[in-house]
Amino acid sequence: MTVTTTRPQAATATAARAEGLSKFYGVDEAAVWALDNVSVGLQEGQFTAIMGPSGSGKSTLLHMLAGLDRPSSGEVFLGDVELSSLNDKQLTMLRRDRIGFIFQSFNLLPTMTAAENIVLPLRIAGRKPDEHWVASIVETVGLSGRLGHRPAQLSGGQQQRVAAARALASKPEIVFADEPTGALDSSSSAELLGFLRNAVTELGQTVVMVTHDPTAASYADRVIFLADGQIVDEMHTPTADQVLDYMKRLGA
Amino acid sequence: MFSTTIRQMLAHKLRLVLTTASIALGVAFLAGTLVLTDTMGLAFEQLFGKVSSGTDAVVRAEAPYTASDGVGTSRGPIPASALAAVKATDGVRAAEGTVTGYALLTDTKGKAVLTSGGAPTQGYSMPSDEKLRGDVELMSGTAPDSADEVAIDATSAEEHHIKLGSSIKVLFSGPTREFTVVGTVGFGGEKNLGGTTSAYFDTATAQQVLGTPGQFDSIAVSADQGVSQAELAENLSAVVPDGLEAVTGKTVAQESSDAIKKDLKIVGIMFMIFAGIALFVGSFIIWNTFTMIVTQRSREIALLRAVGSTRRQIMRSLLLEALLLGTAASAVGVALGVGVAKGLKTLMDAVGFSLPSTSLQLEPRTIWVSLLVGTAVTVVAALVPARRATKVLPVEALRESTPGAEKPSIRRAVIGVALTGAGTTVMLFTLYGGLAKAFFGPGLLAVMVGVMVSLPFAVRPLAAMIGKPLSWRGLPGELAKQNAMRNPRRTSSTAAALMIGLTLVVSMGVFASSLKHSFGDVISDQTSADLFVTTASAQGAGYSPSVIGAVEDAPGVEQVSASSWGEAHFLGAGSSYSAIDPATAGKVMNLEVSKGSLAALGRDGVVVSRSAATQHKWDIGSIVNAEFPATGQHRLHVVGVYDGKGWIGDNYVISLDEQKAFAGQQLVTSALVTLAAGADKGEVEQAIATALADHPDARVQDQKEFEKTASGSIDSLLQFVTMMLLLAVLIALLGIVNTLALSVFERTRELGLLRAVGMTKSQVRAMVRWESVVISLIGALSGAALGIGIGLAMSQALKDEGIKAISIPVPQVTMYVVLAAVAGVIAAIGPARSASRVDVLRAVVTD
Which end of chain B has fewer CB atoms within 10 angstroms, the N or the C? Predict the structure, then answer.
């Protein structure tokens, strides 16, 4: 186990945190531990990346934090709310109102235009979108000319930017991104990551992203490393090379 | 290839169950119909065999043609004197004259023993020779042997609590008489003869009350030991006087059972039509399923093509799947068919077509016909989608494809619109442009097919219209509308199944409604009667002519005009005729006689309809050849032409006296009553009702009551047809479930995404539910529109047959549409549940 260069900052408030979080699949001896007693806090207004080799449990951790999956034991807090105390409907509404999502692919409904996809969670909630806010996001993401297009008429990078705009449109407390650049070429990746970075720096948005790409991780304020279902280390304001070196040492 | 096929079929259990059911139900109906008609045919054959089992030969009057059923088609009587010669013939062991006629039993309180479905109420002479009675056996008491004794069928005795020794009145064509019940009769184990009632009298009494003294209907003969039926008939033929013939007992039994089978065939064809509709609707579901299978498997098919499968192999594999599915579904259908046969029989009993029964007959022919038809329908329905599968290009294996969103072709639009337009034009020309009526049916068919072909183009506008109110339901409503519009072809073929069902139900409804309204108009326009004397039950065949005398004698009655009907051959072809009273008919009926008059009907006159006159170029004085089984050929002179079909719908009208002379005394079917000046209608009605106390086969009604009775029979017929068509609607609903289930399956990822970004389970369920409602309403509304159009066209086409009024039963049609929407909600229950249970993680995580 290696000691990293910096210590965690203690000053900012926690947007979400996990305490003693475990997840296993199967039963008894056949049980496979995806997460083993993980405790972590995610600071408000920070861009956090979760990294680790395949099977390290990084996606599982993200799904737990985002209320998409339920832990085997332990607790997840979003703000003051403990997620396991919520029923399916409450959890769904929490996702709708307080969380933004960007998935690796298939983020958009094929029957709806880009504009419609962006305001989807708001429409589900039956809320009127904040026009100025949405317009400013669309502007930033650089989609102004393509709002009337359906997903099939957009490139992969454009689709992911629509997804990012959607994630921000409802002004969520936290945005979870699961390998958002996994299916993109490097220039599209850079555009998307730049956009997320901006959202954190300029708007104070909290973003948590799972990735296996050291370059993507270098956009983050903080990188958490997972291996075999446990947090093994973390890094603050890293460069891509630092992350890559560390990953090599982790034996990825 | 074979095992792949099987595995793929089992992989989608719900789809398998639904597609199996959609074909199996239609096949079950088909098999059920065959089983039912076979069973009834056999039952009647056995019955007639039993009744005539003791009769080796029959001597009867010759007739120009044999009609074993039909009003007024029995043979003429034979003189009683012929009996002596028959008895003296070689090989005759015993011979007795038989007489049959109308005899309505009453119970001990004087209430008529009515049959269901208008089955005959008959009286017979009871042979004194026991062997001649055949299987007609005394179940209790003794045979009648004096003028005031009667034996009745065991069912009537039991159901109406008529005990041996009790005194009952029996109604005849002539005066009513009172008898003592001395015995109950069974028929080879059955307690009644095919739903009829029977009264047995000794021969002399039977001649008096059922026929004419000195005459028999026929002579039943029993042979000496060792003499065959054929020999006996031959011996008898040599001795019977001119105008009589001798035939074997077997021949007579065969004639009767042939006639019944002919009737059953009509029932069978009617049910076959419904089975055909059900299968047709089912084929849409198969078509849909295979289209979806091909879409889902297109990558797989492309892969198979890429690694070298030929188009032929792909096609063969899909058709094999259809073949297996069709055979399995048809087998299930045949098994269900036996149950359906029972159900149909119960239904027919309930609506009043009571039939004798024996154990259900599952002939090998039923099994193979059903299997063949069901399998063929399935394979044919799968043919087009299978052909499409062969067009999948190998390169498509490499593409990520989103299912759905095919656009219907232009060619389809052109064909659809052309067919609809051509059909409509043809129909309009037959109605208003003098084109032959025969083109109406093909025109109608073209319109229906045309609408079905072009329905995909109507899906978007219809869904947009129906979906408008759904926007109030927020995003789930909006998405439901979009999903329904997404694949217009799939939506339209799902909705088309429902459309067909509703088109038929609604067009029948419109037609029946027009018929009912016309009936009211016909009564007011074409009769000037104050009161109507009708049969006691709506299905009653008629009532005794003696009723007329009783009504005439009631105080306040000015005039009674009776009418009857019957069947005979006119110009060599079977046709029905009406018989009226020429002296009074002109005053109470307005048949719009344009030439000659009703009053001119004498001994050999006939009044013909305008359409028949035009067709045969008849004018006053033209000769019409008519043949009656009882009296042979008659040359009738046209003495009038009438234009106003309605109250009377037959092409031929003769006088009651002519009918009696040509076909023997028949029952009266209705009588129009006018009041004497100043008489009070209510009082007269009461007086007639009192006079009819001794005639429980007839009743008096005013116009309102009469209309209501007639509407009632139209309604029960409509109900029967609607119930049959419900099967097609049910299959259509299975189709909606099928389509929704497949759509949900296809959209797993979308549903997962929606759930991830915050759509609640109940919102997801609502979304699927509304989509279902949109699809069913597309079917229901287009079906209702088409049905109204067709119903109106049919009514218009029959304008000359007396359907003068046109009426759309708006509440009824609205109810059907609302029910379809509700059914859509029900159909969505399962798919909506599975949609709400989509695993969010599995859907959004790319692996």
Answer: C
**Same domain, residue pair B506 and B552:** no
B818 contacts B811 by C-beta, under 8 angstroms: no
Residue A211: partners with Cβ closer than 8 Å, 6 or more residues away: A49, A50, A51, A179, A180, A181, A182, A217
pLDDT tens-digit series, residues B551-604: 999 999 999 999 999 999 999 888 999 999 999 988 888 888 998 989 989 889
Does B467 share its domain with B572? no
pLDDT tier, B68 (very low <50, low <70, confident <90, very high otherwise): low
Q: Tell whether B97 and B235 lie within a shared domain.
A: yes
Task: Answer whether B355's CB lies under 8 Å from B345's CB.
Answer: yes
Domain boundary among B201, B231, B260: B260
Overall average pLDDT of the B149-157 stretch: 93
Q: Which one of B757, B760, B839 would you mutate to disrupt binding with A, by most A Cβ within 10 Å of its Cβ?
A: B757
Contact A92 B758 (CB under 8 A): yes
Decide which of B436 and B518 is more confident: B518
pLDDT exceeds cutoff 90 at B714 = no
Residue A237's domain comprises: 43-68+85-250
Say how many C-beta atoms besides its own lie within 10 A of residue A1's C-beta.
4
* pLDDT per position as a tens digit, A107-133: 888 888 999 999 999 988 888 888 888
In a domain, A198, yes or no: yes
On whether both B154 and B240 belong to a single domain, the answer is yes
Question: What pLDDT, on a 0 to 100 scale, did the predictor assign at position B11?
Answer: 63
H or E stretch at B156 = helix B154-159
C-alpha A239/C-alpha A214 separation (Å) is 8
Q: Which of A63, A125, A183 sits opposite B758 (nearest CB)?
A: A125
A25 touches chain B (CB under 8 A): no
Separation in Å, CA of B373 to nearest CA in chain A: 40
Q: Average pLDDT over chain B, rounded to whole?
A: 86
pLDDT tier, B396 (very low <50, low <70, confident <90, very high otherwise) = low
Looking at chain B, the whole-number percentage of residues with pLDDT higher than 90 is 36
The number of distinct structural domains making up chain A is 1
ipTM: 0.89
Inter-chain residue contact A103 with B763, CB threshold 8 Å: no
Is B644 found in the same domain as B563?
Answer: yes
User: Within a domain: residue B508?
Assistant: yes
- Distances in whole angstroms, Cα of residue B661 to Cα of each of A166, B55, B230, B395, B578: 93, 30, 34, 86, 14
Residues 388-447 in B contacting A (C-alpha not used; CB under 8 Å): 402, 405
- Same domain, residue pair B736 and B696: no
Q: Is the pLDDT of residue B319 over 60?
A: yes
Measured between CB atoms, which of B749, B755, B840 is closest to A106?
Answer: B749
Q: For residue B639, give its domain range.
A: 531-701
Q: Which of A63, A105, A120 sits opposite B757 (nearest CB)?
A: A120
Q: Please say whether the dihedral angle defined by the alpha carbons of residues B37, B40, B46 and B52, taken in this order, is positive or negative.
A: negative
Which residue, of B701, B735, B764, is where some domain finishes?
Answer: B701
CB-based contact, B460 to chain A, within 8 Å? no
- Residue B308 counted as domain residue: no
Q: Minimal Cα distance from B403: which residue of A? A: A110
Q: Are B224 and B84 in contact (CB under 8 A)?
A: no
CATH number (domain holding residue A240): 3.40.50.300
Instruction: Cite the DSSP H helix spans in chain A.
Output: 58-65, 88-98, 114-118, 120-125, 131-141, 156-169, 186-203, 214-217, 240-250
Q: What is the pLDDT of residues B220-268, one digit of tens each?
A: 999 998 899 999 999 999 988 888 999 998 888 888 888 777 877 887 8
Q: What is the dihedral of CA B570, B575, B576, B580, to 10 degrees?
A: -20
Provide CB contacts within 8 A for B688, sequence distance 6+: B531, B533, B551, B554, B557, B673, B700
Nearest to B15 by CA among B216, B240, B288, B244: B288
